[in-house]
C-alpha cells in the first residue's frame, strides 16, 4: 500500500492524498507536478527512477488506510 506522503520532497508543497498532481518513483519519493515536470524533468533526484502520477486514495478508504503524516521536505 502506498504511504501517500503529505508533501513534495523538493519544495515542501502540501500534497494531500486526494490531489491528482503528485508524482512518485518506485521508492515512493514524492514530488509536486511543478517540481516533477520542471527542474526534475521527470527523474527522481534520489534514485534516478522515473516519476509517475501518484494515484489518489478514495475518501471512504482514508479512515481505514490513512495517508502518511511524515514530511520529507528538508528546508
From TrEMBL:
Protein name: DUF1272 domain-containing protein
Superkingdom field: Bacteria
InterPro entries documented for this protein: DUF1272 (IPR010696)
